[in-house]
Amino acid sequence: MKTFKIFIFILLVSGIFSCSSCFNEKAFVEKYFQEIYQPSQLDSVYKSLPSEYFIENITWYCYQKNHLCQSSTLQMVAEKNGITDKPLDFYSFLLGYTYGATYVKGAGMFTPYSDPEPGFILAGKFLGLERKYQITDNKDLLVDNIKYFLSKDIPVRIAWNSAMTMKFAIESEYFPRPKEWKEPPKEAFSPHSVLFVGYDSSYFYYYETHGKDFTLRGEKGIRIDKSSAIDAISSFSRNYRLPWKYMMTVFEKDSISIDLNKIFERIGEEMIGRVLGPTSTGSFAIKGLSQGVKKEGSSIFNSPKKEYFKRTIETLMEIRLDNSVYLEQEFSTNNEIQKVSELLKKSSNNYGSIITILEKEKNNKNDVISIFRLLELSAELEEEAGKIFILASNLGIE
Predict the structure, then answer these.
(1) Which of 169, 303, 310, 343 is the most exposed place for a label (fewest CB within 10 A)?
(2) Is the dihedral of CA 306, 311, 315, 321 positive or negative?
(3) Domain for residue 96, yes or no?
(4) Burial of 220 by CB count in 10 Å (0-12 exposed, 13-18 middle, 19+ buried)?
(5) pTM of the model
(6) Same domain? 306 vs 363
(7) Using CA atoms, how far apart are residues 358 and 60, in angstroms rounded to an integer?
(8) Is the distance from CB of 89 to CB of 61 less than 8 angstroms?
């Protein structure tokens, strides 16, 4: 469920600026989130709301893969607004985050995708929807506004710490209870995105986006008491040091829309990436990971580091292959995008070769060199793919 990776940008802040006397970190963080997230303050108080309300005409999409919660929430919102028959990969494409990557030097943190939140702005515009990321430090105001939008038949996207809410999904009838399941420790943090679809006097009801593959319609969803929901939301904000306590996202119909060229430009930028202090994104993140492997040497084969590294590479391989297949099928007549598809497929194959190396019973220094070279090659392939995206966006996408 670890989809949000805003924390990388917080590390960026502390890494670039080491002189606390000449730099106001809090002001910089607030400026960053204000500019990139474009939030608006909740200020409306609603006193006359229905005692309960449930959105009925909405499809619940849940997926086994844990990096798709953002795409799933957008898919459900889009279908609620009459946009149907689009695959999940279409929404990942619009958001762009599954085409990027992030690496933090020194912290050993790598994620095979980028911060998805900014992508909702452009994705919403392409779909003819205005994305409203609304914030407050007042929990009562948050609850009132969630209820208000739900009562207007508008689902509410919520970002929270799912380590604190997992038990509600496990205790529901929708997911099998794992054997010997234990509730995560209090300090556990698993950033996640779900969709609220109803409420009554004591509970919110939501659609979980990760756990197993299923599609349902007309379900009330998973019940969670309002206090637990609020705590999970504030935990998300606190762990990422956001300059607000609570946040919610809604999408409303808008007359302003954009074409595919803007989406292609954003994806190209995500794939090429950049280096900012200890944080690198896109192709530079892949290069950063390769350098990290080179520095660690054979220690990457020690447990549990090896198992974690293998899972990360498996996710990279799956994401790049999924994106390659989608582009190949969706833009079959566009020669430039077909080149991108092929580059992503080659990159995915490189990650597959790394997995084969990691599956060996014993590894040696030559394996470290092979993994390093494969990552360097994938970085070059993905950088080239990003450049083609930007070139294609400038030429105009048909």
Answers:
(1) 303
(2) positive
(3) no
(4) middle
(5) 0.90
(6) yes
(7) 37
(8) no
Q: Select from 288, 394, 380, 333 the least CA-distant residue to 15.
A: 288
Q: Are 93 and 75 in contact (CB under 8 A)?
A: no
| Boundary residue ending a domain (253, 283, 313) | 253
**Domain enclosing residue 202, as ranges:** 7-83+127-253
Residue 300 shares a structural domain with residue 239: no
Tens-of-pLDDT digits for all 398 residues of the chain?
333 333 334 343 333 333 434 445 577 677 878 888 999 999 888 878 999 999 999 999 999 987 899 999 999 999 999 999 899 999 999 999 999 999 988 877 899 999 899 999 999 999 999 999 999 999 999 999 999 999 999 999 999 999 999 999 999 989 988 887 888 998 999 999 999 999 999 999 999 999 999 999 999 999 999 999 999 999 999 988 899 999 999 999 998 778 999 999 999 999 999 998 888 999 999 999 999 999 999 999 998 999 999 999 999 999 999 999 999 999 999 999 999 999 999 999 999 999 999 999 999 999 999 999 999 999 999 999 999 999 999 987 65
136, 45: one domain: yes
Q: What angle do CA 213, 214, 218 make, to 5 degrees?
A: 155
User: Do residues 234 and 330 both lie within one domain?
Assistant: no
Q: What tokens does 188 get?
A: 């556990």
Domain match, 317 and 390 both:
yes
**Is 331 within 8 Å of 398 (Cβ atoms)?**
no
Spatial CA neighbour of 318 closest among 89, 114, 119: 89
Q: How far apart are CA 367 and CA 354, in angstroms?
A: 9
Quote the crossing angle between the two packed helices 88-95 and 305-330, to the nearest 10°: 100
Query: How far is the C-alpha of 102 from the C-alpha of 233, rounded, in Å?
Result: 24
